[in-house]
Every structure is written in C-alpha cells, then in structure tokens.
DNA sequence: TTGATATATGTCGTAATACGATATATATGC
DNA sequence: GCATATATATCGTATTACGACATATATCAA
C-alpha cells in the first residue's frame, strides 16, 4: 500500500515525532497535575501502581520496581520518600520476612482519586488523536 | 453503560495503571535503543524533533524547546551537547540574528534512520494493545 | 542441622540533566 | 534612537535513579 523500498519518508519521521510530542504532552499534563497535589510524578506513578495492582499477592518493593521499570533499590528509595510523606505504609511480610508489603494511606487514596479522575478526563480528550497516530504508524512501511 | 455514580472502580485504576505501564515499556525500549546507539534518550528526541519538523521556518532552539516541552535555556544546553557530539549544526539565522538554525549532520541522519525503523517496528507490536486500553478508558465513567 | 547460595531490601556516594537566576545580543515599536 | 521584548547563553543547584556494596531472610543440598 506504500513505497516499495524499506526507506523512510519525511512523513514517517513526522508521524513518529508527533506521536512522541503527544505522549510528552500527556506526561507533562500528568506531572503538572501531580505536582499541584504536591506529588512528584514518579511518586504519583508509584501510588497508581499500588492502587491498580490486581492479584492475590500484596504489592511489594520488588513488584513495584518491576512495574515501574526501575531497579529494586531505587524502589526502596522511592518508597522511603512516600512513607516519609505519609502516602504509603510499609509492613514486613509475615510469611516472607524479607518482603515489605505496601499499602496506601487514606491521604494517598484521596489524592489519587482526584488525580485519576482528572487523568481519565484528559485521556478522553487525547485518545482519539493518539489512536489516529498509532493507526497511521501501524499501516506504515 | 456503566455505574451511575462518579466514583472510580478498581478496574478504572487498573486500566490507567496498565496504560502507564505500557507507555513506560515503550519509553524504556526507546531509551535502550537510543543508548545502544550512544544517544541519551532526550538527545534522540531532539534529533527526531528536528528531523520530523514540517514547516517553512527552519528549526530553532526556541521551537525545539516548545516541541520538547522544556525551557528555552534547557534546549540551549541540550543542543550544546548535540553539537559537541557532532549530531547537530548550529548556525545563526541570517534574517534574525538572535535565532540559531539547527540541522542534522549526516552522522545523525544515519543513526536516526536506524532508530526510527526500530521504533516503527516496535510500535506495530505495541499499537493494538495501546489502542485497546485507550478505547477502554474512553468508554469509561 | 549446617553451610552455601539466592533473594529482597537497604545505604551511600555519584552522575546526569532540567531548572532558576541572571546575562547578553538582537529586534521592534513608539 | 531609546525602551521594551525576544532569543539564546551561562552557571550554580536540586532531584533522582544508579552502581557498588551491605544486611537479613529463605531455600536447598549434603
């Protein structure tokens, strides 16, 4: 349906560039919204990850690290900040005492609820545009 | 089609969390790919932005900053690094001597071409999943 | 059980980079 | 032709993830 060679067109670069721009705007919106609630972006992501976690196993430092794509010891530091700020409680797992079980405080629940509503609203604005760009790139090459 | 109250369900948090996880994986893939080419992620974004720029006006420090959502003086520093590494040429605009016109070197063109191909391939993998999640969130609330 | 190894988390110094505050050069408008 | 705005640049600072290393607990084989 398109060019026969495997070379890239100006439109290809433009599409990818626009995708990244759109993603940046979303991330920027998100970071600003979190900041307004007094939360650094990464701490917001940690709260969302803990709250959005499905599964029988409780959330731990290690699984948080996996989900955030950071090293376990970086998650340790991140959780340290969250506990210090009163957003997360950290309890030693009773079965495996190496593990730390994480849970949100009421304070975190309230903040995250507001942020999540705002984010879903923003996504509704952004989604159609994003889907269009993704479809374009799918068809590409 | 869903709950009547404006409250969030566990599934809402889960969907948003999954969206962010998917975005992180893409960004992480991208950062790793760039790193393998010797480029920090932000420098890669700068190159892509310059290359993907459409419009009569040439790319400048200021418009790069806008597109990257960073402060102009941060773009100055970023471009400084790119010039030092031989990826970008910076020339004073002839009409408006305050402006710096940016262009990619051949070295940058080659690297960016490889990276862009890889990225488009990756997006083809990720796009269906991403579109699904976005649709879910669109229908939501 | 014991000892060896693996796993989970924690500590501390470092590096990278965007920012704030500030500065300079050029343009533009009255 | 000055006052103000715009575009870019410089430098010190703050944030945060990481590498290197350390500790505690678990697991498994002999």
Any descriptors?
homodimer, mainly alpha, 2 strands, DNA-binding
Quick one: how many beta strands of chain A? 2
SS-based class of chain A: mainly alpha
Query: Biggest interface and its residues per chain?
Result: A-B, 46 and 46 residues
> For the largest beta sheet of chain A, what order do the strands appear in spatially?
1-2
Shape of chain A: elongated
Topology:
The structure is a homodimer of 141-residue chains.
Chain A: H1 10-36, H2 41-51, H3 61-68, H4 72-84, E1 88-92, E2 100-104, H5 106-139
Antiparallel strand pairs in A: 1-2
Helix pairs in contact in A: 1-5, 2-5, 3-4
Chain A binds a DNA duplex (30 and 30 nucleotides) through helix 4.
Quick synopsis:
The structure is a homodimer of 141-residue chains. Chain A is mainly alpha-helical and 141 residues long.
Report on the structure:
The structure is a homodimer of 141-residue chains. Chain A is mostly helical and 141 residues long. In chain A, 66% of the residues lie in helices and 7% in strands. In chain A, strands 1-2 form a two-stranded antiparallel sheet. In chain A, helix 3 (61-68) crosses helix 4. The longest helix of chain A has 34 residues, at 106-139. Chain A is elongated, with a radius of gyration of 19 Å. The model of chain A has no long low-confidence stretch (mean pLDDT 95). Chains A and B meet through helix 1, helix 2 and helix 5 of A and helix 1, helix 2 and helix 5 of B. The first copy, chain A, binds a DNA duplex (30 and 30 nucleotides) through residues 40, 42, 60-62, 70-78, 80-81, 96-100.
């Amino acid at each position: 349906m398109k060019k026969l060679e495997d070379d890239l067109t100006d439109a290809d670069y433009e599409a990818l560039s626009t995708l990244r721009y759109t993603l940046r705007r979303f991330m920027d919106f998100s970071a600003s919204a979190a900041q307004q609630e007094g939360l650094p972006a990464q701490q917001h992501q940690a709260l969302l990850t803990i709250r959005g976690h499905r599964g029988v196993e409780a959330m731990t430092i290690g699984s948080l690290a996996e989900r955030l794509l950071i090293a376990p010891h970086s998650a340790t530091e991140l959780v340290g900040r969250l506990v210090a700020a009163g957003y997360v409680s950290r309890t030693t797992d009773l079965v495996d005492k190496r593990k730390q079980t994480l849970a949100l405080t009421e304070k975190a629940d309230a903040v995250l609820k507001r942020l999540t509503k705002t984010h879903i609203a923003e996504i509704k604005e952004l989604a159609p545009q994003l889907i269009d760009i993704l479809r374009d790139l799918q068809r590409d090459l």
